[in-house]
Design brief:
By secondary structure, the protein is mostly helical. The chain folds into 2 domains: about 10-205, MFS general substrate transporter like domains (Growth Hormone, Chain: A); about 235-445, MFS general substrate transporter like domains (Growth Hormone, Chain: A), CATH 1.20.1250.20. About 75% of the residues lie in helices and about 0% in strands. It has 16 helices and no strands. α6 (about 115-145) packs across α16 (about 390-445) and α11 (about 245-275) packs antiparallel against α15 (about 365-380). The longest helix has about 55 residues, at about 390-445. The protein is globular and about 75 Å long. It is found in: Membrane. GO terms for molecular function: transmembrane transporter activity. This is Major facilitator superfamily (MFS) profile domain-containing protein.
Length: about 450
């Protein structure tokens, strides 16, 4: 008689609720978000001049405002999104709502005939993008076992970086070859694929909907256990996390990584033109050297983290990044062997590629460590972050840290280059990475998840 009351499984339940499909859905969502962010960059100039009739004297200021709006909104909305995502923890609904906002915002941006409509569209895109990062990473953390979370989150970062690379390049090529509206059909196609994947996804594969929940099973006691009678003590999430050395170190790594990355946007093009006489095509290849190695090596960095922990690779690679920044500052300087007419050009290119290669082992594994630290705290004190857990709020901190770095990078990079010069600016980044290496040595752990007891003390 019990079988009569069981709910039938949805069509395709086995593959729609599988880990690979959930991860693929999140990967597509992250790709779509970064793709849309970069897609606007080469189109924005034509939009401002030809569609919005913005005066050339105000174009640069408005361009900076439109691009900075995304990061600013993430800083403001991230904690709010994380709070409500943990309170209700319906990941699929949250992802669908964010996609709805993104589609409306994208249509507003594409069809904007006024600056306020363009800004409002970017506001909606920014809030939706922040939700995708927070809810998407929380979904991965809830789906994957701790022993494989490093590889899984690194794969997500690689997919996001792929969108960062492909967005501007595809938009620029299509705009010249096909025209404005055909160009905008590409992000709409990406959003359509994203929508189909999110609708098909089924959460919580470990708890199929056919499982009866109306009463206790034959092996369960009819009386509640003592653990069920005593509610867990709920602590202040922000106080607990922001007083944890591992968490603070991870957030500093994320802020530093995004600050350094975005500082190149404001400093690299002018510097290589002044020192080496390189034009836009060479500059584009240098930016590819910063991003492409991370896309390819990111999963390897996550796998290393799963096997040997975070401390050793972070410390070693942060020191090597400091060396790369030091050499980057020397390249093209007055030192004879490093001048632009000697080894300056190959030295600069090598330094750029080295930074892009090493970055996944430093800033790329910080999100994994954030998730592992939060899970370790909850295993030590079950229920401390509430009955729904705190994973969304964990990744909201990551989103805020990354957005803060996106805001600071161009400003600090431009100021340092103007005040103390490109060489000293690079040496400043080198010094900061040495300090990050010291912090990682003090606070991050060296053991892999598989060998770390659940009751470990947090440092």
């Amino acid at each position: 008689m019990k079988d009569i009351h069981k709910k039938p499984l949805p069509i395709g339940y086995s593959w729609r609720s599988s880990k690979w499909f959930i991860l693929s859905t999140v990967a597509i969502a992250l790709f779509a978000e970064t793709f849309l962010y970069g897609f606007l960059v080469p189109i924005l100039g034509e939009m401002l001049q030809n569609r919005l009739d913005v005066q050339p004297s105000k174009a640069q200021q408005l361009t900076s405002a439109v691009l900075a709006l995304h990061g600013t909104l993430a800083v403001i909305s991230g904690p709010i999104i994380g709070h409500f995502a943990d309170k209700y923890q319906d990941r699929k609904t949250a992802l669908l709502l964010s996609l709805g906002w993104c589609i409306i915002g994208t249509c507003m941006v594409a069809s904007a005939h006024s600056v306020p409509m363009l800004l409002l569209g970017r506001v909606m895109q920014g809030i939706a993008g922040s939700a995708v990062w927070i809810v998407g990473f929380a979904t991965v953390a809830d789906t994957i076992s701790p022993s494989h979370i490093g590889f899984a989150l690194s794969m997500m970062m690689s997919c996001a970086n792929t969108g960062t690379i492909s967005g501007p390049s595809i938009a620029g090529l299509l705009l010249e070859a096909t025209g404005y509206w055909i160009t905008w059909s590409v992000p709409l196609l990406v959003l359509t694929i994203d929508f189909i994947a999110r609708v098909c996804m089924i959460e919580s594969p470990a708890s199929p909907p056919s499982t009866p929940k109306d009463g206790p099973t034959e092996t369960e006691s009819l009386l509640p256990s003592s653990e069920e009678q005593i509610p867990p003590t709920i602590g202040n999430f922000w106080h607990i996390m922001l007083c944890n050395g591992r968490i603070i170190t991870c957030l500093l790594i994320i802020v530093m990584g995004t600050t350094m990355s975005t500082s190149f946007d404001a400093t690299l093009p002018l510097h290589v033109e002044e020192k080496f006489g390189w034009g836009p095509s060479a500059t584009g290849l240098l930016f590819a050297g910063l991003v492409v190695p991370g896309v390819l090596i990111g999963p390897l960095a996550g796998w290393v983290r799963d096997r040997i922990g975070t401390r050793s690779p972070t410390v070693v690679c942060a020191i090597l990044e400091a060396v790369a920044f030091g050499l980057m500052g020397i390249a093209g300087s007055d030192i004879p062997w490093a001048s632009a007419y000697a080894m300056g050009k190959p030295l600069y290119i090598t330094s750029i590629v080295a930074v892009g290669t090493l970055r996944p082992f430093v800033s790329g594994i910080a999100p994994v460590e954030l998730a592992a630290t939060a899970k370790a705290i909850q295993e030590k004190s079950p229920g401390i972050f509430g009955p729904k857990g705190g994973m969304s709020r964990v990744f909201s901190m990551m989103d805020v840290a990354a957005s803060l770095g996106m805001m600071l990078g161009p400003i600090l990079g431009g100021l340092l280059k103007e005040i103390i010069g490109y060489k000293c600016m690079s040496w400043t980044w080198a010094l900061l990475y040495l300090l990050l290496a010291a912090a990682a040595m003090c606070f991050l752990r060296s053991e892999s998840i598989d060998t770390t007891p659940h009751s470990e003390e947090e440092g």
